[in-house]
């Protein structure tokens, strides 16, 4: 598809240039709570991210141009988002529904990491989200350390994407069983330090997940 | 009034709120998000909380007056309310909400009603203390 071709050429420039010239992450945050939107926006801005905050999954899809409206579909100035952070419990389209919709999309959008935020530590919920391809599951209230860690992880991922295109990776480093962490184990560890279920996020976990897609 | 004295009074209120469990680490996290470019961030969030949650409180009050009681709706409103309390670090209020949730689950109306009165009490108590706190900070900031 012509639109897809254009975007593939744009991939090396995924990170937006801020006025200072430093690479800036563009995060799309989705939450139906007014208070949480204000806090997450601040958390992201203070972490030097470009932020777009919307109040629902529907709005998020509209912003991404995935709402099926031909006029807002992929074009030359399509929106570049490096990370989506969405609340789980939202009226209408839940964060899980949004996650599913994004992961069902064409390759460009499917690659955008999606992080789920929830005030409830429910293992079945966490499992479902991770199974569906969520990059991480954060317990609310989200902290500055969570955002910083996510940012580092995404930035590293962006670098690795660049490397992947340049050289082939050997199969052996992709799927080592020891690098697969089960959410149950991590959640015990993470409850001590951060609000993340997948903590610490290691490059090997990332590569083994990507090889499943 | 003396700038230092005002600041000290504000600091005292803040420590008490934290020590007595009215507020938790999330409030401190919000303070960390404040800087010279956003000097009133914490107050803005707290104000937003009280404005926004007033709507939820009203909804819960109305739902408690409705017959028959829609416990699903009550639980839903309370979930939203609790989430907001958690976001500003309103520890005591948030903890009272847990009790409400339990009564909702077993559809115990009296339990819900009584607990909600307690929640509103804690909510107002915190509001007054925070108002005083921010007022003191504001007055101190106005003195050179």
Automatic annotation (TrEMBL), chain A:
<feature type="region of interest" description="Disordered">
    <location>
        <begin position="191"/>
        <end position="213"/>
    </location>
</feature>
<keyword id="KW-0597">Phosphoprotein</keyword>
<dbReference type="InterPro" id="IPR001789">
    <property type="entry name" value="Sig_transdc_resp-reg_receiver"/>
</dbReference>
<keyword id="KW-0805">Transcription regulation</keyword>
<protein>
    <recommendedName>
        <fullName>Response regulatory domain-containing protein</fullName>
    </recommendedName>
</protein>
<dbReference type="InterPro" id="IPR045279">
    <property type="entry name" value="ARR-like"/>
</dbReference>
<keyword id="KW-0804">Transcription</keyword>
<dbReference type="Pfam" id="PF00072">
    <property type="entry name" value="Response_reg"/>
</dbReference>
<feature type="modified residue" description="4-aspartylphosphate">
    <location>
        <position position="87"/>
    </location>
</feature>
<keyword id="KW-0902">Two-component regulatory system</keyword>
<dbReference type="GO" id="GO:0000160">
    <property type="term" value="P:phosphorelay signal transduction system"/>
</dbReference>
<dbReference type="InterPro" id="IPR011006">
    <property type="entry name" value="CheY-like_superfamily"/>
</dbReference>
<feature type="domain" description="Response regulatory">
    <location>
        <begin position="26"/>
        <end position="155"/>
    </location>
</feature>
<dbReference type="GO" id="GO:0009736">
    <property type="term" value="P:cytokinin-activated signaling pathway"/>
</dbReference>
Automatic annotation (TrEMBL), chain B:
<dbReference type="Pfam" id="PF01627">
    <property type="entry name" value="Hpt"/>
</dbReference>
<dbReference type="GO" id="GO:0009736">
    <property type="term" value="P:cytokinin-activated signaling pathway"/>
</dbReference>
<keyword id="KW-0932">Cytokinin signaling pathway</keyword>
<dbReference type="GO" id="GO:0000160">
    <property type="term" value="P:phosphorelay signal transduction system"/>
</dbReference>
<dbReference type="InterPro" id="IPR045871">
    <property type="entry name" value="AHP1-5/YPD1"/>
</dbReference>
<keyword id="KW-0902">Two-component regulatory system</keyword>
<dbReference type="GO" id="GO:0005829">
    <property type="term" value="C:cytosol"/>
</dbReference>
<dbReference type="InterPro" id="IPR008207">
    <property type="entry name" value="Sig_transdc_His_kin_Hpt_dom"/>
</dbReference>
<dbReference type="GO" id="GO:0043424">
    <property type="term" value="F:protein histidine kinase binding"/>
</dbReference>
<keyword id="KW-0597">Phosphoprotein</keyword>
<dbReference type="InterPro" id="IPR036641">
    <property type="entry name" value="HPT_dom_sf"/>
</dbReference>
<dbReference type="GO" id="GO:0005634">
    <property type="term" value="C:nucleus"/>
</dbReference>
<protein>
    <recommendedName>
        <fullName>Histidine-containing phosphotransfer protein</fullName>
    </recommendedName>
</protein>
<feature type="domain" description="HPt">
    <location>
        <begin position="38"/>
        <end position="141"/>
    </location>
</feature>
<comment type="function">
    <text>Functions as a two-component phosphorelay mediators between cytokinin sensor histidine kinases and response regulators (B-type ARRs). Plays an important role in propagating cytokinin signal transduction.</text>
</comment>
<feature type="modified residue" description="Phosphohistidine">
    <location>
        <position position="79"/>
    </location>
</feature>
<dbReference type="GO" id="GO:0009927">
    <property type="term" value="F:histidine phosphotransfer kinase activity"/>
</dbReference>
């Amino acid at each position: 598809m012509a639109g897809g071709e254009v975007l593939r050429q744009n991939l090396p420039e995924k990170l937006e240039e801020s006025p200072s010239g430093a690479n800036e992450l563009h995060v799309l945050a989705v939450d139906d709570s007014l208070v949480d939107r204000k806090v997450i926006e601040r958390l992201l801005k203070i972490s030097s991210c470009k932020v777009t905050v919307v109040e629902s999954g529907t709005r998020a899809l509209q912003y991404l141009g995935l709402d099926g409206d031909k006029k807002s579909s992929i074009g030359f100035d399509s929106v570049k988002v490096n990370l989506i952070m969405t609340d789980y419990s939202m009226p209408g389209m839940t964060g899980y529904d949004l996650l599913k919709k994004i992961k069902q999309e064409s390759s460009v959008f499917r690659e955008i990491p999606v992080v789920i935020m929830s005030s409830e530590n429910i293992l079945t919920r966490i499992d479902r989200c991770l199974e569906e391809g969520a990059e991480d599951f954060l317990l609310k209230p989200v902290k500055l350390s969570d955002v910083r860690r996510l940012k580092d992880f995404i930035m590293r991922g962006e670098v690795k994407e660049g490397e992947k295109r340049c050289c082939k990776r050997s199969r052996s480093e992709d799927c080592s069983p020891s690098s697969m962490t089960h959410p149950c184990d991590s959640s015990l560890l993470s409850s001590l330090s951060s609000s993340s279920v997948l903590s610490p996020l290691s490059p090997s976990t990332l590569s083994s997940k990507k090889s499943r897609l | 009034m003396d700038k230092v004295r005002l600041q000290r009074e504000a600091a005292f209120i803040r420590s008490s709120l934290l020590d007595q469990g009215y507020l938790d680490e999330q409030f401190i996290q919000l303070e960390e998000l404040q800087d010279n470019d956003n000097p009133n961030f914490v107050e803005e969030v707290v104000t937003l909380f009280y404005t926004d949650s007033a709507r939820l409180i009203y909804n819960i009050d109305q739902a408690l007056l409705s017959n028959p009681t829609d416990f699903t709706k009550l639980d839903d409103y309370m979930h939203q309310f609790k989430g907001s309390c958690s976001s500003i670090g309103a520890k005591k209020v948030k903890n009272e909400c847990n009790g409400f949730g339990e009564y909702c689950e077993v559809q115990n109306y009296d339990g819900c009603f009584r607990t909600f009165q307690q929640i509103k009490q804690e909510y107002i108590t915190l509001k007054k203390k925070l108002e005083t706190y921010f007022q003191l900070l504001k007055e101190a900031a106005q003195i050179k």
